[in-house]
């Protein structure tokens, strides 16, 4: 998109256009790797004028996000200067909250993991225990990998704060998706890394914070703004899970995070359903006491840095769409379903390179499709769900049956959506990858033969990333918008 194409009536969108153009350039810089890319090539790939590219790259260099990578011979004239991304100029923490385990990673702008933590977790232990576990893991990662800020000095990458042109645009934009604003309005907007977050909402968009956070067991009434207190009866663990708002505007912990100059924030992924735009949990399967809990706001208040929350399957799917390479056909297009089988069963859906969340952010509740009307009860309240049948088979050691059930759900999904491929992940799959890949593939093969499809069955593959795939995807919830990777909604 070229700036010259904007009409006079698009004045309100010029800052968003500037953000978009910067994201295009940053994405190409990251894709070029250490070899770098010239300004002329950036102009050719983006459709921007050479002058526009020069202005953008000058800003990126001044902010420490880009640097020279040498010179390259040209077909005529002087050698071209080649630019590269500076990966260490920014970092994000990705956290995977499973029902019984917490896994956290610290990644740089390239998505390279530079630190990892794993610890037991009881998702039903209450908000205070869960938030404390997240804070502890994040602070240890940042302290170990980034060190104290003084050790880096004022000239180190990111020391002056990562305020990109995307920041200024996002501060004024009306982008609907929270993840697409993370690096503007909250992660970078008005706050370079190393400056304490104010803890206050932008007026007119978010309202004031409630005087107290909800604890698990306090149900949010539908349609109520985040700034209002939840009504309803308190659950048995509400007092244990309550997060106090004492010290509004200052983090209750996480000083090490707030002082880390290159830290953009945290991405947190956990079982759904949830509202990723508002960062509010719904009735997490098996843990209904979390219904209505504003996890994002509670973590931001505690840690003093921006937080983005999404479902574990969506986070993993985003990570695969961006960095999956040949396993998922690259990030430019195509469709796939990521099926995650661990302590539960869910799906992440990607179409055209973007995560599909649905009109009510509820897409991907794959495990709770009913395939046996008189089947065993599921923790969601229904009977005969794929999740219940699949986990029951795993519990009794019948992996062939578990794979067959999972394959049945995958075949239903392939028939409904006509996806390009199915990727399998999660701890249960990782423990016996061949059994699940072959078992699910056999069901899809049988379906293709019945239908007489000329292109063969939808391929089934093991998702790359291993046990930390969800945590890495959670970090991408923060990083992806910086490089022009949003979600398709």
Automatic annotation (TrEMBL):
Compositionally biased spans, kind Low complexity: 147-161
One Pfam family per UniProt: ROK
Highest taxon of source: Bacteria
Residue ranges that the Swiss-Prot or TrEMBL entry lists as coiled coil: none
Signal sequence annotation: none
Annotated segments matching region Disordered: 147-249
Residue ranges, compositional bias (Basic and acidic residues): 169-184, 202-212, 219-240
Family: Belongs to the ROK (NagC/XylR) family.
Name of the protein in question: ROK family protein
Species for this entry: Streptomyces salinarius
